[in-house]
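Late entry, evening session. Most of the bench is empty. Finally got around to the prediction I had been postponing all week. Sequence below, unchanged from the version circulated by S.P.
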Amino acid sequence: MKRFLRDNSLTLAFGAGFLVTLLGQAVSGWQFFNSQQRAQGGEALPFLRYLSSSEFAVDVVENWQSEYLQFFLFIIATVWLVQRGSTQSKKVDEVGIESDREQRLGRYATAHSPLWARIGGIRTAIYSRSLGLLMGTIFLLCWLAQSIAGRAAFNAEQLANRSEPVSWVGYLGTAEFWNRTLQNWQSELLAVASIAAFSIYLRQRGSPESKPVGAPHDATAVEG
């Protein structure tokens, strides 16, 4: 058990942190929602009912979709784009998908390579892009969920204000939807650009996201 915890500590720590903060968001969001309801003369919701509400759903998934968009774009962009001196970049002369030999595919695979890297054909082609495909799919599903939950929350507010509800397609054209979406996208893109640039000149001893403290600034794709 100790070895399992040590070997998986990064995933377990962030997974536990995710659950704690999700619960914190649920409780604080529930209290904030009910305070607004009381101020407007509306009905407060029990906690479990709030968890199934569109208000809670849209707040959660709008953050998820932007995070997975960040991962998807970063995974795909770093195949072709480089930043000299950054730990987040490949070496500047290794742009592209690289050869089968470099990627250990097909006849260049080893006995310890994943099965789908060894067998070739369509399965190897899919597996070679599986990380980007998964991140892109999760992003699209979260964005879809955000649009559906966001429309429900938007229409509830419209009805409370005695205004006409909108269709799903109509909601996709509203300022509210794009305000929710773009405020998350811009922060994720800024974060990626920041870590790519700052890792050129700044260091964090012992972190694989940083170069060794004594590495030159133009060293690229070097981990500490």
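Two things to note before I forget:
The chain has two domains: 1-52, 53-96+131-224.
The chain is about 65% helix and 0% strand.
Will write this up properly tomorrow.
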